[in-house]
Design brief:
Two copies of one chain form a homodimer. By secondary structure, chain A is α/β, with parallel strands linked by helices. Chain A folds into two domains: 4-267, Queuine tRNA-ribosyltransferase-like (TIM Barrel); 274-346, no CATH class. In chain A, 42% of the residues lie in helices and 18% in strands. Chain A contains 15 helices and 16 strands. Chain A has helices at 44-49, 59-64, 68-73, 77-81, 93-99, 126-136, 153-178, 194-206, 223-233, 251-259, 269-275, 316-320, 323-331, 335-361, 365-373, and strands at residues 4-10, 13-20, 23-27, 29-32, 55-57, 87-89, 105-106, 111-114, 121-124, 140-142, 183-188, 211-214, 243-245, 264-267, 278-280, 294-296. Chain A has an eight-stranded parallel sheet. In chain A, α8 (194-206) links the parallel β11 and β12 (211-214). In chain A, α7 packs parallel to α8 (194-206), α9 runs parallel beside α10 and α13 (323-331) crosses α14. The longest helix of chain A is centred in the C-terminal third of the chain and has 27 residues, at 335-361. The radius of gyration of chain A is 20 Å and the shape is globular. Chain A binds chain B through residues 36-38, 40-44, 65-66, 70, 73-75, 80-82, 303-304, 306, 316, 320-322, 324-325, 327-329, 331-332, 334-336, 338-340, and chain B through 36-38, 40-44, 65-66, 70, 73-75, 80-82, 303-304, 306, 316, 320-322, 324-325, 327-329, 331-332, 334-336, 338-340.
Chain lengths: 374, 374
């Protein structure tokens, strides 16, 4: 039985349903990030009210604190954080390389790194990453890959790609050995090189993965490069599997990705922006590409503004609080600010993607895209 | 028409109903503190779910930021923070003297002080405090008083008491001049001296105040001194007015105060304790005077503890999350920790006082007190 079903198409964009052990997910879907087994400042109820269907947690962080063995003893990640809907964990690969300090060492066997918490030394291998993710118990787990920076050049990119492929095979093997009903996704690397990317896609598609993810430094961070890669892949990605663009969470990038056939996204952007006072607004209320669809709540123009962040938004924050009050909480450094701002930004992003899904089912993706990005 | 009605008595302890412009309050009542127009980390909905009937906000803080004029323009404190139940504001007297820096100067006219935010110079007089509180628009406002430290000795205490009385008269006059339906409470000072306290109570009772508050350094901070003052007053406080002990919020002190006829309390203790990892537990679950009815969530014994903070508690936090998860959030410095911990501590305190109210109506105050303080 297939875990993924396409229920609607509009050119390359797809509306689908993804089956996981903790329920079905309607795609395209935005996945809020809950790094340390909590989406910053929100309860599981807040997330459900905002419409979140699945959240992401970070293997690197949970391995270091509180430890995957402890979470396993407490019944797994779902029970630990009291979230009964789907969860995806990343492999820890990106984090060990970016947070692992100057002593990170990558060999064909795995990666040694130091903890950003206490400087202690650790080693992740593909097998170890899969073991940790089995202990955590997320619905979707990710293969351990090497994310090379784009600036390292072609030669190293090729080497990192080969290593990612050998690690992918080891991940599949370890996952089969451990058993269970978790879904395992493979990750396509290959940096900015078309032939490497295509080689990566072909190889990852050939293995027994439940889904295909696009990784790499530029995905989500550089719209031009992201679009280029997505375009190369549009006719090549396996139809019957879900497609996941890692680290994508800005309005424009989401449209670019969905247009190219991507089904899943995750990004810290809505939560991080919320913290910094950047609150999403729709085109009707001044949101556009040039302001990244957000207002800056610290702006003095909102001092006496009784309107909600986005007057068309139905989130709890917009239904109850004014820009003036949020601005006050922001400057007073009040904890409530974070929660109200995060509720809005998560709701906004989750519901934008839901609106896009509707537009695909109605074959109106392009007109929706134009109304946002014009 | 009287704003306060006693509906039950058990010795000196009273169960009553206090009428305010934003609804009736059942007393005894615990009032959570929302210093900057927010009870730290909680929404109005969280507060209602926890059973809060009235909250307190701080005039000093709101005057400095965002400013009472701005709040007035936005429709007053209730609309500003989206809280439609009663609010009490303090006079700012305690804060200007404790936070006003080393340049605080008290004269018979008022108090000059510097802002803890930007060092700017300000002056509060009794009239100014009442004007600000009228702009903020709380249901209950407080007279501007001088809170002298206990260590200043009898001579200065007497001087501060006289000043408090002259200021009380000016507050009543200004309040009448401004009109409206806010209730104004007077504050009894007099430090640790029985004759000064009694003189204070007699004077404040003689003025046209809607309620009588007990102020001073030791109230709430020193159980022995608090009990002594309450005992002096038990037969002297005007029956027909509500009695408010300022800054009281620990379990033992609450029992002491209610036993002596106090109807209202406020304290930052539940919110501050929550921040520091101190979470209330009832006697059934190990709470007692010696541990201040709290566990320390940072304790390693809770590492793998699947139980809620207090297994008999019906708050949202205890219904959904384990001590182990809260401990993880605490150490990970996650924003969600604050919210979940605060929800529990506020619920616990609000509901303890509700339970005490029931015991008064049932004439069982003493046995409830014994079951907690034995």
């Amino acid at each position: 039985m297939s875990i993924f079903k396409t229920v609607g198409k509009d050119m390359y964009s797809r509306a689908g349903v993804l089956k996981t052990p903790h329920g079905e997910i309607e795609t395209p879907v935005f996945m809020p990030v809950g790094t340390q087994a909590t989406v910053k400042s929100l309860t599981p109820d807040d997330l459900k009210t905002a419409g979140a269907q699945i959240i992401l947690a970070n293997t690197y962080h949970l391995y270091l604190r509180p430890g995957e063995k402890l979470i396993k003893k407490l019944g797994g990640l779902h029970e630990f954080m009291s979230w009964d809907k789907p969860i995806l964990t990343d492999s820890g690969g990106f984090q060990v390389m970016s947070l692992g300090g100057s002593l990170v060492k990558i060999t064909d066997d795995g990666v040694t790194f130091t903890s950003h918490l206490d400087g202690s030394k650790h080693k992740f291998t593909p097998e170890k990453s899969i073991q940790i993710q089995h202990d955590l118990g997320a619905d979707i787990i990710m293969a351990f890959d090497e994310v090379a920076a784009d600036k390292v050049g072609r030669e190293y990119s090729e080497k990192a790609l080969d290593r990612t492929h050998s690690w992918a095979e080891r991940c599949v093997k370890e996952h089969k050995k451990l058993g269970g009903d978790q879904l395992l996704f493979g990750i396509v690397q290959g940096s900015v090189y078309e032939d490497l990317r295509k080689k990566g896609l072909e190889f990852i598609s050939s293995l027994d993965f439940d889904g295909i993810a696009l990784g790499g430094e530029s995905i989500g961070f550089d719209n031009k490069a992201t679009k280029e890669i997505i375009d190369w892949f549009a006719d090549l990605m396996p139809e019957e599997k879900p497609h996941y663009a890692m680290g994508v969470g800005e309005v424009e990038t989401i449209f670019i990705c969905i247009e190219g056939g991507i089904d899943m996204f995750d990004c810290v952007s809505p939560t991080r922006r919320a913290r910094n006072g950047s609150l999403y607004i729709s085109p009707k209320n001044g949101g556009k590409v040039s302001n990244k669809f957000a207002l800056d709540i610290s702006n003095s123009q909102f001092k006496l503004d009784k309107k909600p962040i986005d007057p068309n938004c139905l989130c709890y924050t917009c239904q109850n609080f004014s820009r003036a009050y949020l601005r006050h909480l922001f400057f007073a450094k009040e904890l409530l600010y974070h929660r109200l701002a995060t509720i809005h930004n998560i709701y906004f992003m989750v519901n934008l993607v839901k609106e896009i899904r509707e537009s695909i089912l109605d074959k109106k993706f392009n007109s929706l895209k134009t109304s946002w990005l014009r």
